[in-house]
Structures are given as structure tokens and as C-alpha cells.
Design goal:
It is a single chain. The chain is built from ten helices and twelve strands. The chain is an alpha/beta fold and 296 residues long. It has a single domain, classed as P-loop containing nucleotide triphosphate hydrolases (Rossmann fold, 3-Layer(aba) Sandwich), CATH 3.40.50. Strand 11 and strand 12 form a beta hairpin. Helix 4 packs across helix 5. It starts with 19 loop residues before the first strand and ends with a helix.
Length: 296
């Protein structure tokens, strides 16, 4: 839990537990003079039964990390592995059966009904109408969109669309179990949700993870991350600032100042003891982070 941003991070330990791992990955974006480093030497392991919240200021590299874990971006350095096998060695169909990705801002122009859109999540799997119906129904109930059956996706509110997008993603890996685990990568799953749905969504995601899902999610609401994540990964300037249990911010409230430029008090919740962030105001981040964040 160091705030040093120089030097490599240790790679995740190899074990017999299936995991989606990043081992010292560095990612560059752009070409020529526009080429820049977006992530540097990031390591983590996503294991079934655990939720990792990826947090950080705008431009910290959160979405880039999630896309790399999904196999959508190849790192310049380092290795990505799924169940010990290099991610690049998996075929697209194999990968789609083991991990599902919810990208931010899903935009669908076709006039799909809600259940048709959710059913798209079953596309990578062998044709099995009964299994597809079961998975679609389960995912829709999970995301609390069963009452939208028959509605056109384009006619929904932004919050309803968000929950339908989550249902589609979940349908893809609904059959995950401890014996056949899968991974769920969610980019801002609580965006556009009211407080009740945001809370219930992450509560349900955490409960579902215990049935064989390894979950990584990006969330901007620090208090939701601290409440429902098993692990917190704080990115700053494309590097890991801290990685550990959410309770670490009770011991190191300065992490919020360094990583977010946020002056805040952190207290244990009176009813559960988990950390609660009470923002006071903006605070300057380090010169190094500021220069990295603002670089072209």
C-alpha cells in the first residue's frame, strides 16, 4: 500500500486457483509523436468469488486496464493470463464463454425489445433454447428488468437501459459456478442509476460473485466501492497507487489526496464498520501525477 509510483509492482502469485491475471502490464496508446504511456507495470489477479473495484481520477487508466483484462487491448509489456494460459492464446469464442464485458455507454440503434437485447449475451454459447431462456430470465430478474419485457430498448430511461445492459452482460456468464468459473468486467455499472438501484446492483453483483464469478468493476462513487468491494485498486497516472482491502483507506486517508486530489475525512460506518468517505474539498495532487494526467 505504498504511494510510490516508480519501480515495478510484484506479479501476482501463481497458484492452482483459476484467475484472470495481469502481470506487470504496460499499455501505450497512439502513434508516432502522439504515442503515450497509459498504464505502467500494473499487476493484479481476479479470482472467482471476489469483487475488485478499480477506482481513480479521470484519466487514471481505469477503462484501459479493463479493456486489457478483456483482451481488447494488447499490452506493450507484461502478460495477461486466464487460468494460467496467455490471454492472446484464447480464441474469441472461447474467451466470450469465460468472460463478459459491460462497456460504458451502450448505444443500440436497432429496435430491439429488451429480452432480444439480453438474449444477445447468449450468442457465444452452443444453441440450446432451454438454457438460453433460463439464463435470459435469470439475468433479467437479477438486474430488476423483468417488468420491461416487450418494451423497446430505445424507449427506456437511461437508468433502465443501464440495467438492461447489465442483464445482457450477465446472461453471457449466467451459468458460471465454482466448478466452472467465469469473469465479469463492468465499466461504470452504476452510471445513471438512482441510489436504490445503484446499491442493490452492487449488492447483487457481490452475492453473485460468490457463485463462481471473478468481478472487476469501475465505479466513481467511492462509498459504493468501499461498501461492496473485497479489494480496492487505486490507479493514479496509469500506475497502481494502492491495492488492498477497502479498510486500507481508514489507515491511509492520504491516498485520497494523492490519487484523487480530494481532501476528505474517512470514518468507519456506524452500522457496519466499512469505510465512509466524507469529502471536504479539492486538494492538489503531486506534481508528478498532475504532469502525467495532463500530458497530451
Amino acid at each position: 500500500m505504498s504511494e510510490r509510483l516508480d519501480g515495478p509492482r510484484p506479479s501476482p502469485r501463481r497458484s492452482s486457483v483459476p484467475a484472470l491475471t495481469a502481470e506487470g502490464i504496460t499499455v501505450h496508446r497512439g502513434r508516432g509523436r502522439q504515442r503515450r504511456e497509459v498504464l505502467r507495470e500494473v499487476s493484479l489477479a481476479l479470482t472467482p468469488g471476489s469483487v475488485t473495484a478499480i477506482v481513480g481520477a479521470n484519466g487514471a487508466g481505469k477503462t484501459t486496464l479493463l479493456r486489457a483484462l478483456a483482451g481488447e487491448l494488447a499490452p506493450s509489456e507484461g502478460t495477461l493470463r486466464l487460468c494460467g494460459r496467455p490471454l492472446a492464446a484464447w480464441s474469441r469464442i472461447e474467451l466470450a464463454r469465460r468472460r463478459a464485458v459491460m462497456n460504458a455507454g451502450l448505444n443500440i440503434e436497432f429496435p430491439f425489445c429488451v429480452e432480444e437485447l439480453v438474449a444477445l449475451g447468449r450468442h457465444p454459447h452452443p444453441d440450446d433454447p432451454e438454457a438460453d431462456r433460463r439464463c435470459v430470465a435469470g439475468a433479467m430478474a437479477f438486474a430488476e428488468v423483468g417488468h420491461l419485457l416487450g418494451r423497446r430498448y430505445r424507449g427506456l430511461s437511461s437508468g433502465e437501459r443501464q440495467r438492461v445492459a447489465l442483464a445482457r452482460t450477465l446472461a453471457q456468464v449466467w451459468d458460471a459456478s465454482c466448478e466452472a468459473p467465469a469473469w465479469l468486467l463492468l465499466d461504470e455499472p452504476t452510471a445513471n442509476l438512482d441510489p436504490t438501484h445503484a446499491t442493490s446492483t452492487l449488492e447483487r453483483v457481490r452475492a453473485r460473485s460468490r457463485r463462481g464469478l471473478g468481478v472487476a468493476l469501475i465505479v466513481h462513487d467511492l462509498n459504493l466501492a468501499l461498501r461492496f468491494a473485497d479489494e480496492l485498486l487505486i490507479l493514479a497516472g496509469g500506475r497502481v497507487l494502492a491495492h488492498g482491502p477497502p479498510a486500507m483507506v481508514l489507515e491511509r486517508p492520504d491516498l485520497l489526496r494523492v490519487g484523487f486530489g480530494l481532501d476528505a475525512d474517512v470514518i468507519p460506518h456506524p452500522r457496519g464498520g466499512w469505510p465512509v468517505v466524507l469529502p471536504v474539498g479539492a486538494a492538489p495532487r503531486s506534481a508528478e501525477l498532475r504532469s502525467r494526467h495532463e500530458s497530451p
